Amino acid sequence: MHPLKPLLIQLYYGGTYPYRRRWQRQAVRAGRAPVVVPVFHRIADDAANDWTTPLADFRAAVLWLKRHFDLISLAETQRRVRSGRNDRPSVSLTFDDGYADNAAALELLLELEVPCTYFVTTQPVIERAPFEHDRQMGNQFAANTVEELRGLAQAGIEIGAHTRTHCDLARVDDPERLYDELVAARDDLQQALDTPIRYFAFPFGLHENLSVAGFHAAREAGYAGACSAYGGYNFPGDDAFHIQRRCVDGPAICLKNWAVIDPLRYGRTARFEYQTQSPPRQPAVVGACE
Residues 116-128: what's their mean pLDDT? Predict the structure, then answer.
């Protein structure tokens, strides 16, 4: 992130804050308060890449959220969306990938009793290999171990699935590969951790990384919900299966600027619609039921 960008975001946030607050109060009175679902990736102080957040910034963001929002689970997010009414500004925290460096951040969430869903890519965890996107940048960051994830699950962190290899599912046309990345990888992780895996997050998560086939496969596989990351908000009455999120890695102002909704901007993000589209006709996956 360019050094001036946080300052520009802060100036924009401050200048539009009164308008945001008025809009938020109106939404609350109408029972239309949205649920905001931010995505973090890696919490560390080395500024290694654009998806790394300093621990102090993460702590500041979480403490600020606790003062201003209901902090809820994805299951509660879905309940409020399905109910058609939400009277409280709400946030549900998520992480993607599964970096071992997140230990201190997760300890903070557990200490503060803040719900969190932690989406994990199966291959780096089980094979103890670095993420391919990190390797390409010359980094060798460790993924969480099975033992660490099992402990997090037992402590109350919801573990989710994030494919086997962190691939772009929109580019996956082979039904057997889709099944392996979305279902078999989940089953392997579930068996390794001995805990239910209820939620799925598309890697990268932008419109161009999502697929109708992927959403339908997630439903058929029994997931409770599937997550994007292109920047949508979750309003009461929306499709609760598709949970819209946004990446907020970096300085705490990035999360604040997203969480206190800017009504001038939120309507510009088109929702990815999969329900009105039929999945591509595919041959049966050999061995899928074995």
Answer: 96
SS3 35: strand
Query: Burial, 13: exposed, middle or buried (Cβ in 10 Å; 0-12, 13-18, 19+)?
Result: middle
Neighbouring residues of 152: CB distance < 8 A, sequence distance ≥ 6: 106, 118, 144, 159
CA angle 219, 242, 156 (to 5 degrees): 85
Q: How far is CA 54 from the centre of its chain?
A: 18
Q: What CATH fold (topology level) applies to the domain 5-268?
A: TIM Barrel (3.20.20)
**Distance of alpha carbon 187 from alpha carbon 31, whole angstroms:** 38
Give this prediction's pTM. Answer: 0.93
Helix residue ranges, H only, the chain: 5-29, 55-68, 74-83, 103-112, 122-127, 132-135, 146-155, 175-179, 185-193, 212-220, 252-259
Tokens of 277: 């589209």
Residue 124 belongs to what H/E stretch?
Answer: helix 122-127
Q: Can you give the pLDDT at residue 133?
A: 86
Q: Which amino acid is present at 111? A: E
CA 7 to chain centroid: 25
Domain coordinates in residue numbering, the chain = 5-268
Residue 280 has a pLDDT of 57
Tokens of 128: 């103890």
Average pLDDT value for residue range 176-205: 98
What mean pLDDT is predicted for residues 218-231? Answer: 97
What is the rounded end-to-end Cα distance, in angstroms, of the chain? Answer: 47
Which DSSP state fits 162? -
Amino acid at 228: S
pLDDT over 90 (residue 277): no
